[in-house]
Amino acid sequence: MGFEGNWDDFPVECMLIVENINLNAAKAVYKAATQYAGDVAKCTSTPVDTGQYRGSIRADPPADFNIPVSYVGSPMPQTRRLEFGFTDIDSLGRTYNQAPRPHWRPTFDLGKAIYLDIMAQVLQEKA
User: Fold this and answer.
1) Checking DSSP bridges between strand 86-89 and strand 72-73, what pairing results, if any?
2) Could you tell me if 34 and 59 are in contact, meaning their C-beta atoms sit under 8 angstroms apart?
């Protein structure tokens, strides 16, 4: 694969590609993050007693579209305990020996190629 255009236009073409990537980067990250959040929510190992936790899993759009960062998670207090487990006494004095129920990391590991493909597709779109 090589550049087949006019070499005098090469710097301009490169700048257009960079500009396009910069304009689409936040969109690419958010689209992949939204897919990841949906995958975690649907994961068979995601706990679902009432459905409230599963329904709270979401991806937040980038706060600043110049910085392509999207936070994926749940505001529910049990999120960390469910993923990593908890063996200790909580702030109310209750003793727990809760085994981990990983659902965030396994989902990411299984879908990593899909999330990369989503971002690559969006980065190739014209801004």
Assistant:
1) unpaired
2) yes
Q: Quick one: which of 26, 13, 33, 37 has its CA closest to 123?
A: 26
Match 């965030």 to its residue by tokens. Answer: 104
Instruction: Report d(CA 16, CA 41) in Å as an integer.
Output: 38
Could you tell me if residue 49 is inside a domain?
Answer: yes
Three-state SS for 95? strand
The verdict on residue 93 lying in a domain is no
Q: Is 32 within a domain? A: yes
**pLDDT tens per residue across all 127 residues of the chain:** 455 666 666 676 667 777 777 778 999 999 999 999 999 999 988 887 788 999 999 999 998 878 889 999 999 988 999 999 999 998 899 999 999 999 999 999 999 999 999 999 998 887 6
3-state class of 94 per DSSP?
coil
The residue segments making up the domain with residue 36 are 8-74+104-124
Name 78's Cβ contacts closer than 8 Å, sequence gap at least 6.
53
> Residue written as tokens 């590991």?
109
